Amino acid sequence: MGQIIVTWSKTIKEFLRQRTVLFWTIGWPILWVLIGSFSFTGDAPAEIVSHTRGAIAISMMVFALMTAGMANLPGNIAQDRERGLLTKLMSMPISPWRDFCGRILALLVFSSLSAVSVVAVGYVCGARFFFTMNQFGYALGFILLIFIASTGIGMLIGTFIKHVHGAIMTGVGLTVVSAAISGVMTPYAYLPLVLQHFAKIYPISSANSMITYLLVGKDYAGYNPLSTSQITLTIIISLSVFAVGLITYSKFCWRKE
Amino acid sequence: MYAIFTENLTKKYGDKVVLKKVNLKIEQGEFYVLMGPNGSGKTTLASIIASVKLPTTGKVEIFGVEPEKAKKEIGYVPQENFSSPILTGKENLLYFAGLLGYSKSEAEKIVGKLLKKVGLLEDANKRVSNYSGGMRKRLEVATILFPYLKLLILDEPTTGLDPSARRKFLGMIQELRDEKTTILLITHIGADAELASRVGLIDEGEIIAEDDPENLKKASGLENVINIETPIKNEKVATVLGAFSERRKVLETEEGYRVFTKDVEEATPKIVRSLDAIGCKATKIETVAPSLEDVFFKLTEKVVSEVG
User: Which of A6, A8, A79 has the most B C-beta neighbours within 10 Å, making it the best mutation to test the interface with B?
Assistant: First the structure.
């Protein structure tokens, strides 16, 4: 068995067997899909209810991806460090890069599972999406960017916040606050001007708008996020955050003092 | 060629010197115990040997090469419980087998044998969160029993175990010793060190004495120790007992105190009377052979194992 496979297997089991991880990454966003679908669409005209529910489902899917990357990943890293597993691993003839790949693959599978669950519940609740296969392909690409950016932030948190609870709470806090002020959980149009600028720079909210624009419609994105400059900016920032996270993780978490 | 060789090994954290020019030579097949109190530098020394930390200056060789190159032959059990509580015992060992490059079928076979060896075969499919402290430690020791590992480093493996679990655990270590694997065990518990072929006493980053347990006791000059169990332990009792002890120092233990004196027969009745006079009745008073903890205390006037 390769190091990547066993690390993947260990990490995915740890994600799937922890009730708190399951609740906050899958249960909590689903709960908001349910609340959002039936509370915030009550008086809306029938023809836009399904769109609104679609936008809510996408927002909560993005929130689930953020929680997975920004809270579960650092929690997992901090937990392995706190209980001495990283010390044990450093004494073994293994590669930090393979450990990283195993963890990220597990996170990718777990994130996909949570994203699919949230969208599926949204669909059952009446959310509808309208897209061509091309648009769907682009949307998947932007989902991947959210995963990449969240993972990069998660690696930074996991590297610098040493204790498990601290790492998880920081991740959750950052997820909730950044989602709230960047238009993931509030409509872009209602944000003050300064936060509208932030929403365009923050790669997660930018990608969220792109997915919403593609799958639900331009009215729900608040602006046209599919300009070349906006897409380029989102890709560059997502990849940069990921690269910084990866370098930091491999340099500091596995550093011999 | 030594299993472990260090020359003038020094480790500093900022201005703090944790290890001071440590020279250690451990032969292949030796069971070496490094004993010292908390903060003496023993864990730092073990982690440098295990290639987890780097020395500031000095030389370290494991089987003639630097630790990084000898990783394939080193099995290290750090002080912390590193096994995943969410996984089963078997899953934990399969993870480590995979990290060491075993194929799935090889890993299954070898993990079965290891679980049997550490007495956890019946509990293999239970989650580690349901294991007792002793079971968890045995599982973690199993991670260093993969066949080609020749140097086993165990950092405080018996800390926190109850006496029965400690006995079982030490029995298992004894079996490993018979297999001629080189073992470096770090401890602050004297009884654990009694099994060793050689014991190194470490204090403030320096190895202050090194020999087999019996020779260490002989060299310390300690003949007999009076072990006193008292219901009361305080400064007054310690002062009274100190009057009968060498250099007026007594060693505090879980149950009471240990007094170091050359003339046991003369001192014992006086101790009983003196304790009575201050209203402290000894529940048990006996003459015992010196322990390695007594030797450490004699040499440093420090308690190797803090009384809880």
Answer: A6
Quick check: helix, strand or coil at residue A13?
Answer: helix
Measured distance CA(B17)–CA(B11) in Å, rounded: 6
Query: Residue B306: what pLDDT?
Result: 54
Q: Does residue A36 sit in helix, strand or coil?
A: helix
Question: H/E element holding A50?
Answer: helix A46-67
Please give the DSSP secondary-structure letter assigned to residue A251: I
CB-CB neighbours of B266 under 10 Å: 10
| B99 φ, ψ (degrees, to nearest 5) | -60, -35
**Mutation test of the interface with chain B: which of A88, A90, A101, choosing the one with the most B Cβ atoms within 10 A?**
A88
CA distance B228 to B271: 9
Question: Which value does ipTM take for this structure?
Answer: 0.88
Structure tokens at B69: 């190159």
Q: What digits encode the pLDDT tens for the residues A65-118? A: 999 999 999 999 999 999 999 999 999 999 888 999 999 999 999 999 999 999
**Residue whose C-alpha is closest to residue A8's, from B90, B95, B88, B104:** B95
CB B54 within 8 A of CB A90: no
Collapsed DSSP state (helix, strand, coil) of residue B77: strand
Closest CA to A187 of A58, A68, A64: A58
Handedness of CA A9, A15, A18, A23 (dihedral sign): negative
Give the Cα separation of B301 and B173 in Å (integer): 30
The alpha carbon of residue A116 is apart from the nearest alpha carbon of chain B, in Å, by 25
Look-up: residue for tokens 């655990």? B169
Helix (H) or strand (E) holding B227: strand B225-229
Residues of chain B neighbouring A110 (CB-CB closer than 8 A): none
Contacts of B79 in chain A (CB under 8 A): 84
pLDDT, one tens digit per residue, over A179-232 is 999 989 888 888 999 999 999 999 999 999 999 999 998 888 989 999 999 999
SS3 A202: coil
Cα angle for residues A134, A135, A141 (degrees, 5° grid): 95
Alpha helices in chain B (DSSP H): 42-49, 89-99, 104-117, 133-142, 163-178, 190-193, 213-220, 235-242, 264-277, 292-300
Is the pTM higher than 0.90?
no
Distances (CA, A) of B2 to A19, B150, B186: 49, 12, 19
3-state secondary structure of B273: helix
Length in residues, chain B = 308
Give backbone dihedrals phi and psi of B183, rounded to 5 degrees, phi first.
-125, 130
Pairing status of strand B31-35 against strand B74-77 = unpaired
